[in-house]
Amino acid sequence: MDIRLRPTALADIPYVYETEQMEENRAYILPWENTRHEQSLANPDIRHLIVEDAKKGNSVGYVILAGLANPHASIEFMRITISEKRKGYGRKVLQEIKRLAFDEWGANRLWLDVKEENRRALQLYLSEGFIMEGKLRECLKTNDRYESLIVLSMLAREYKSWTQT
Question: How many CB atoms are closer than 10 A to CB 23?
């Protein structure tokens, strides 16, 4: 299956909200208000993108990246949220985001954080060459409990080496 990324439009915000609210997604992200999504569309430092199945043309998720104007060439992969789970879309999106970040946007570093309990996502990032940098211990309070974040990154030279093997 092939995917296509396109800029999120205002008309996509209800889909984005609905995807965030899915039970399988809500536990692993910090949902934004619709107004924050809308504001991000006009921010030159952020890329808010809809993921589409290239063959079917339907939306299957969205991603948010920040730091496109970062003078240190460090881009944050803020969010990947997929509405059609266990079909391989997440891996395809991650591969395309790496290509965009390093080959098109000239990033030196692509980084992200993931909730420690999101084992499936953590395994995906590690299997795609991301390096674990550390843990932000109990840095998020969700309801009545604290959660930790794992920080991972990939450098341009690691991406180059990864794509040559």
Answer: 6
